[in-house]
């Protein structure tokens, strides 16, 4: 054995150990940053309220976000029940409601239908994805790939069960 033989073997062993920890750390970061398949969203109907003039009726909903990411809420189509089936009312389409944070809930008011009929509300939820600071420390090509992946937010449309008209 030479004088430096054991030192080279020790450096090679430490290099493998560092590489294993680096790969494990990168894998854990990737799994943590992956989006959820479908966030656990709860929508509960609370009841009706009127505006101060009594012209409009609003349905109040409690929206709960049980996921890890913030969600933007947008009003979708209102569906009205007729004797022939369901029809879609798009008069309030794309009404912006706001957002709900991860693990939080929000009270959402929805302009109810003008007629006394059974109806359903459809909510559109979009992920709010804000890249972490570490993304901007990556090499340029890797940063472009990561930001391209982040710039594709996922959207879910969730409808409520039938809601009876106010009495």
Gist of the model:
The chain has 167 residues and is an alpha+beta fold. The chain has two helices and eight strands. The strands form two sheets. Strands 3, 4, 5, 7 and 8 form a five-stranded antiparallel beta sheet that branches.
Query: What's the CATH architecture of the largest domain?
Result: Sandwich
Quaternary state of the chains: single chain
Count of separate DSSP helical elements:
2
- Can you identify the CATH class of the largest domain? Mainly Beta
Estimate the strand proportion: 35-45%
Give the count of structural domains: 2
The dominant shape is elongated
Distance between the termini: 95 Å
Low-confidence stretches: none
**Overall strand count:** 8
Helix content: 10-25%
List the secondary-structure elements in sequence, H or E. HEEEEEEEHE
Q: Return the structural class.
A: alpha+beta
User: Largest sheet, if any?
Assistant: 5 strands, antiparallel
Cα radius of gyration in angstroms = 26 Å
Descriptive overview:
- This protein has 2 helices and 8 strands.
- The protein has 167 residues and is of the alpha+beta class.
- The protein folds into 2 domains: 1-34; 39-159, Immunoglobulin-like.
- The strands form 2 sheets. Strands 3, 4, 5, 7 and 8 form a 5-stranded antiparallel sheet that branches. A 3-stranded antiparallel sheet has the order 1-2-6, with no helix packed on it.
- The longest helix is centred in the first third of the chain and has 29 residues, at 5-33.
- It starts with a helix and ends in an 8-residue tail after the last strand.
């Amino acid at each position: 054995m030479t004088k430096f033989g054991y030192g080279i073997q020790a450096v090679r062993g430490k290099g493998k150990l560092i590489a294993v920890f680096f790969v494990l750390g990168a894998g854990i970061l990737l799994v943590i940053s992956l989006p959820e398949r479908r966030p656990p969203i709860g929508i509960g109907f609370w009841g009706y309220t009127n505006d101060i003039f009594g012209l409009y009726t609003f349905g109040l909903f409690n929206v709960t976000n049980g996921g890890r990411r913030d969600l933007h809420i947008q009003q979708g189509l209102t569906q009205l029940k007729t004797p022939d089936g369901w029809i879609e009312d798009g008069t309030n389409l794309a009404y912006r409601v706001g957002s709900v944070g991860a693990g939080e809930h929000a009270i959402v008011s929805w302009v109810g239908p003008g007629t006394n009929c059974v109806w359903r509300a459809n909510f559109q939820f979009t992920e709010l994805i804000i890249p972490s600071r570490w993304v901007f420390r990556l090499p340029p090509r890797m940063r472009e790939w990561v930001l391209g992946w982040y710039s594709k937010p996922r959207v879910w449309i969730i409808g409520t069960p039938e809601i009876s008209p106010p009495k």
